[in-house]
Amino acid sequence: MNIEDLREYCLQHPFVEEGFPFGPETLVFKVNGKIFLLTGLDNDPLQFNVKCDPEKAETLREQYTSVLPGYHMNKKHWNTVVVDGSVPARLLKEWITDSYNLVAKNRK
């Protein structure tokens, strides 16, 4: 997965908005005005932060060395995923969708 694939996948979800509220180097995806994914455009390899159920967040960190506590985020609810090829794209997409669903269900 590269940044173009990530962007395309995020935008496939209903009511998603993208923007740069933190500056030109951080791409943010929101639903219902709340962030469900953010990524630094300068990261090599690609990394992104996604919201996660707290228990699942811990489990994923234990299972995958490329899943870390959320950088600059609430580490209980957010993971940083380093896209280094160690996790299949289908799982990355699953985690993105999980994050979207967690945020989307908390409608205003």
Question: Secondary-structure blueprint of this entry?
Answer:
Layout lengths: L2 H9 L4 E4 L6 E6 L2 E7 L6 E5 L2 H10 L3 E3 L8 E5 L6 H16 L4
Antiparallel strand pairs: 1-2, 2-3, 3-4, 4-6, 5-6
In brief, what are we looking at here?
By secondary structure, this protein is of the alpha+beta class. It has helices at 3-11, 54-63, 89-104, and strands at residues 16-19, 26-31, 34-40, 47-51, 67-69, 78-82.
Number of helices: 3
Point out poorly predicted stretches: none
Shape: globular
The CATH class label is Alpha Beta
Q: What fraction of residues sit in β-strands? A: 25-35%
Instruction: State the end-to-end CA separation.
Output: 32 Å
Pfam families: YjbR
GO molecular function, one term: DNA binding
Keywords: DNA-binding
Keywords:
YjbR/MT2646/Rv2570-like; YjbR; 6 strands; single chain; Aspartate Aminotransferase, domain 1; six-stranded antiparallel beta sheet; alpha+beta; DNA binding; DNA-binding; 108 residues
Verbal overview:
The longest helix has 16 residues, at 89-104. A six-stranded antiparallel β-sheet has the order 1-2-3-4-6-5. The protein is of the alpha+beta class and 108 residues long. Strand 2 (26-31) and strand 3 form a beta hairpin. It has helices at 3-11, 54-63, 89-104, and strands spanning 16-19, 26-31, 34-40, 47-51, 67-69, 78-82. The chain has a single domain (3-104), classed as Aspartate Aminotransferase, domain 1, CATH 3.90.1150.30. Helix content is 32%, strand content 28%. 28% of the residues are buried. It starts with a helix and ends with a helix. It is built from three helices and six strands; from the N terminus they run H-E-E-E-E-H-E-E-H.
